Amino acid sequence: MKFLSPEPDWQAVKAIGLDMDGTLYDEADFIAQVYRPIGLYLAGELSCEAEALYAWMLQRWREKGSSYPYIFGEAVQRFGSGEPEERTERIRHCVQLFRQFRPTLRLDDTTAKWLDDAAGSYALFLVTDGQAALQQAKIDALHLSRWIAPGNTAISGRYGAGFQKPSTK
Fold this sequence. Notes:
single chain; 3-stranded parallel sheet
């Protein structure tokens, strides 16, 4: 724990707060999983090659990051055509597939060991951004309740707009 501060006063520390996506696990693992069914759906709708569409979405995510909200819209525009209503419906369905996805995730051994050590001495809490059901599915997949009590978990999507980190709300 000394790597967090050169001379920590660990007696004063009562709790340690954590982020989940990209901190406790590599978010690219989740994105690679969730984009697969979305890519298959869009390939069927747009009559294009699924692997090319999937690879493009992954690359775009690497370029823009998880906060970028236009990947599905750009994929629909880049790989297909159609009336605006069709495009809007396809994007809506992609978002639905994304939010309803149930991932298979695991913590790496170093992170699990760190959580074991930290939970033995401190109360741990989690603050994570995103849609509540999806974030809860990730929490469940990572078995984080082993270290973090459910009452010590805050998912911004449960509270509405304006509550995502780093908002003081």
